[in-house]
TrEMBL record:
Protein source organism: Cryobacterium lactosi
Keywords for this protein: Aminotransferase, Pyridoxal phosphate, Transferase
Requisite cofactors: pyridoxal 5'-phosphate
Family per similarity comment: Belongs to the class-I pyridoxal-phosphate-dependent aminotransferase family.
Pfam families: Aminotran_1_2
Superkingdom, taxonomy of origin: Bacteria
Record protein name field: Aminotransferase
EC code: 2.6.1.-
Tagged with keyword Transferase: yes
GO aspect biological process, one term: amino acid metabolic process
The Aminotransferase class I/classII large domain, residue ranges: 36-390
Enzyme type, top EC level: transferase
PROSITE patterns the UniProt entry points to: AA_TRANSFER_CLASS_1
InterPro entries: Aminotransferase_I/II_large (IPR004839), AspAT/PAT-like (IPR050596), NHTrfase_class1_PyrdxlP-BS (IPR004838), PyrdxlP-dep_Trfase (IPR015424), PyrdxlP-dep_Trfase_major (IPR015421), PyrdxlP-dep_Trfase_small (IPR015422)
Length: 400
């Protein structure tokens, strides 16, 4: 009977809401209600998009060419600019035909998994992971296999751990350096060892390089295809302008990979969303080809905030915060705070701890459960210096 038909598909009904957006949304709702909440939840730079990029977009709005459909795979000029950036920063020479422009890096992640996975294929997922990865894998019919590295390892998985998790169903390794949520960066030797292992076992690699230009202490995030060039035929790089250029709202990302994979993903996109907004694409050309001084100034500011937040968090007994070398997050181990009573509440998980912090200190942080095991918090330091320091002061007072 019609009234017995399931209203929502099992596949879509099983998706969890993005935990980072959920926490940030709750913080913004409290702020709108007049609460002085400081949010460390969203991975979003507090800076405006650099002026020359905005000017390029304003000019694009007035050009009738941009009022029409363009190739689903992206504007040729932008695909050329992305190919040049890929050679410059990832050490991989590709023609523009092997570039697909997407609606943000998140669409690139989804399409990469959808292009490669058949039902039951396993993906090795270094953990802690960005909250969207396992959902995108499951949507594609794949099976995420967590490979956990804790704070004692600097959140970096080893070849030995990956090998222990590999089965005859393993098809893809996800590689993320710098990492969201931890800010961890694999060294060139570590990257090469993992890449050589993946090549030896014939695995595909999806490498998320969205934070590759945000590194510190002289560290460089070496692309896995630069470390192991033989992997290029089985690697999809995903990237975008959101983090480096403070362009989260412009929704502009891309995929770079072997021709067969990019052609297949472009076919999917032609039915899914067609071309990305031409205005955003013109802005992206200005971002990649234009002056980089504004992006560098933002990176320097993130570096200053990184040092401040690590030093201040580590003053709190029970918190252990490894120093991240990339992105704009810290991922403190807070197991030392659990099982103790704070303001009449005794949290036993980082989810409960995050709720306590929001209620009693009016500070929003994302609990470790969003990224893997409990016992951690993710705090973004991509917010203003004053707000950052005030938020940490509140935590120091709460846990004194």
């Amino acid at each position: 009977m019609a009234h017995d038909i399931k209203r929502i598909s099992t596949r879509i009904g099983s998706i969890a809401e993005s935990a980072t957006l959920k926490v940030d949304g709750k913080a913004k709702a409290l702020q709108a209600a007049g609460r002085p909440v400081i949010s460390f939840a969203a991975g979003e730079p507090d800076f405006p998009t650099p002026p020359h990029i905005v000017e390029a977009a304003l000019a694009a709005v007035k050009d009738p060419r941009n009022h029409r459909y363009t190739p689903a795979a992206g504007l040729p000029e932008l695909r050329e600019a992305i190919a040049a950036k890929t050679l410059r920063d990832s050490g991989l020479a590709v023609p523009a035909s092997r570039v697909l422009v997407t609606n943000g890096g998140k669409q690139a992640v989804y399409q990469a998994f959808a292009t490669l996975l058949d039902p039951g294929d396993e993906v090795l997922l270094p953990t802690p992971y960005w909250t969207t990865y396992p959902e995108a894998i499951r949507l594609a019919g794949g099976v995420p296999v967590d490979v956990f590295a804790g704070s004692d390892q600097g959140y970096l998985v080893t070849v030995e751990q990956l090998e222990a998790a590999r089965t005859d169903k393993t098809k893809v390794l996800l590689f993320v350096s710098p990492s969201n949520p931890t800010g961890a960066v694999y060294s060139e030797d570590e990257t090469r060892a993992i890449g050589e292992w993946a090549e030896e076992h014939g695995l595909w690699v999806i490498s998320d390089e969205i934070y590759q230009n945000l590194t510190y202490d002289g560290v460089r995030a070496v692309s896995i295809v630069e470390a192991v060039p033989a992997l290029a035929d089985r690697t999809i790089l995903v990237n975008g302008v959101a983090k480096t250029y403070a362009m989260t709202g412009w929704r502009l990302g891309w995929m770079v990979g072997p021709q067969d994979a990019i052609t297949a993903a472009a076919n999917l996109q032609s039915h899914l969303s067609s071309n990305v907004s031409n205005i955003s694409q013109r802005a992206g050309i200005a971002a990649l080809n234009g002056p980089q001084d504004a992006a560098e100034a933002m990176r320097v500011a993130f570096d200053r905030r990184r040092k401040l937040i690590v030093a201040e968090l580590n003053k709190i007994p029970g918190i252990r915060t490894p120093t991240p070398q990339g992105a704009f997050y810290v991922y403190p181990d807070v197991t030392g705070l659990l099982g103790r009573t704070w303001g009449g509440v005794t949290p036993t998980t980082s989810l409960e701890l995050a709720d306590l912090i929001l209620d009693q200190a009016e500070v929003a942080a994302v609990p470790g459960e969003a990224f893997g095991p409990s016992g951690f918090l993710r705090l973004s330091y991509a917010l203003g210096d004053d707000a950052l320091l005030e938020g940490i002061r509140r935590l120091q007072k709460l846990f004194s």
